Amino acid sequence: MGNLIPILAALLGGIGLAVQPPTNAALGRSVGSVLVAALLSFAIGTAILFAIWLAADRTPLANVRSAKPWMLLGGLYGAYFVAAAAFAAPRLGLASMLTIMIASQLVAALVLDQFGLFGLDRAPVSLARVAGVVFVLVGVVLVRRG
């Protein structure tokens, strides 16, 4: 039961990641720019997070001073993901775009886990983990050909 909430959070996050690219692509077409769509997406997300922080968290923002500069790059990765997904989804199809992104995420995750990068606990690469990623890569090919 202890893992149920993180699993549900991950499932809902996955649904959000599937819905976000076509939503932002439609917004990009409507406003005439994928970058403006990504900017609006982040502005709205920032406003929502700010409101939740005000209502429920209130961790002092001064704590940011203790963060190492590389720890602030998550916004860069997120901005690129949102813009790239809004650009790629209508050109590749949502399923193809997502399988390509998921496959690349899993390959990167294996490397990050293997070496315990970014403060992660080390999780050595195993044959089973590599096989799982290979199946996803095969899925990318099947989805692209489908």
Structure description:
The structure is a single chain. Helix content is 77%, strand content 0%. The protein is an all-alpha fold. The chain has two domains: 1-88, no CATH class; 93-146, no CATH class. Helix 1 (4-31) runs antiparallel to helix 2 (34-57), helix 1 packs across helix 3 and helix 4 runs antiparallel to helix 5. The radius of gyration is 18 Å and the shape is globular. The termini are far apart. Pfam families: DMT_YdcZ. Keywords: Membrane, Transmembrane, Transmembrane helix. This is DMT family transporter.
Mean pLDDT: 93
**What best-fitting shape do the alpha-carbon axes yield?**
globular
Report low-confidence residues grouped into runs of 5 or more: none
- Strand-residue fraction? under 5%
Helices and strands, in order, run as: HHHHH
**Number of self-contained structural domains:** 2
**Main sheet specs:** none
Pfam families: DMT_YdcZ
InterPro entries: YdcZ
Organism: Sphingomonas qomolangmaensis
Protein name: DMT family transporter
List the keywords.
mainly alpha, transmembrane helix, 146 residues, 5 helices, DMT family transporter, 2 domains, 77% helix
Write the layout of secondary structure elements.
Blueprint: H1 4-31, H2 34-57, H3 74-92, H4 94-115, H5 127-145
Helix pairs in contact: 1-2, 1-3, 2-3, 3-4, 4-5
Provide a short characterization of the protein structure.
The chain has 146 residues and is mainly α.
